[in-house]
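ABC transporter ATP-binding protein (Haloferax denitrificans ATCC 35960), 328 aa
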Amino acid sequence: MITVENLRKTYGDFPAVVGSDFSVESGEVFGIVGPNGAGKTTTLKMLAGLVEPTGGSASVLGYDPEEPAMRRKLGFLPEESPLYEDMTARSYLRFFADLYDVPRDVADERTGAVLDRLDLEYRDRRLGDMSKGMKRKVAIARSLVNDPDLLIYDEPASGLDPLTTNVVLEFVRELRDEDKTVVFSAHNLFHVESICDRVVIMNRGEIIARGTVPEIRAEHGETTYRVFTTVPLAETLPADDGADGEERHVAVVDEMAAVESLRERAEAAGGRVADIRTDEASLEDIFLRLAREAPTTSEAEGGRGGGTGGTTAVDESEQRVVGGNEHS
Ligand SMILES: Nc1ncnc2c1ncn2[C@@H]1O[C@H](COP(=O)(O)OP(=O)(O)OP(=O)(O)O)[C@@H](O)[C@H]1O
């Protein structure tokens, strides 16, 4: 559905995306995750044909993303959805239906079903009078007006309250059940961890880890073991007594060989290992460690200094949605 090879974007001499390679299979929910300024939006805009890459290639739905035909088959949700404040949700969605040549009755039914699932009432309210969460729901409905197979969502749940976040993420998960493919970005790792089939983690323009969440955890996460013994050993600390009132001591180790060593020494001291608990690193832990450790090509080249922040100038091409028209 999507193949990306050595995709790059440089703004002036600033490398926003440095040689990305990944593919997205049909029917997947694929997450691009990273902190502010990591290059997520730039990547998504290149896939949506809204930003021209500086190098490399991307194939989306079998098209070069620059081809207008591709955009007609895509649903793109920008990070900040520009909405016409004076329009009602209903008239706004019909306006987009017209642009995509979708008959109004079909569009009304399609977007109405989306808004029902997203729990949005007040469809005749002015967009300017809607809350941020309500506007986001209208923008999501807009992304589906043309019934696309592929959805590219930039931070769909950013800035929403926890309840609305859950509604939106649950909706994204359900899109997969309808054989849609979803690529979305997030800086909140919890969002990706809960709904993505596969993930790439970006930092400072580069992909620093990839795979399913369990794969990333297996490759980059440190599993630690809390080993409870019934006798004190050199590296144990006192712990609460066991349920049976038996004395307990605990040591935290990060490899099975150390667990075995504790077992042997506990037994040699007349005790035993009473319990072992495994603590798996969260995606958040892994991300923080990788981000700390990752040397960046761009840094080596002196292009991207430290820090992950930066201001994001809105590219004019974001306004293009269908064909070469300027709107939205
Ligand atoms: N049009 C532009 N002109 C110059 N620099 C840009 C432009 N767009 C993005 N950048 C820079 O490129 C880097 C990557 O930006 P991008 O918006 O892709 O990151 P992001 O991961 O989506 O961040 P955020 O989570 O804050 O949206 C940032 O340092 C940003 O300032």
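Residues 11, 14, 16, 34, 36-42, 79, 187, 310-313, 315 surround adenosine-5'-triphosphate (CB under 6 Å). Confidence is low (pLDDT under 50) at residues 297-303, 305-328. ok done for today
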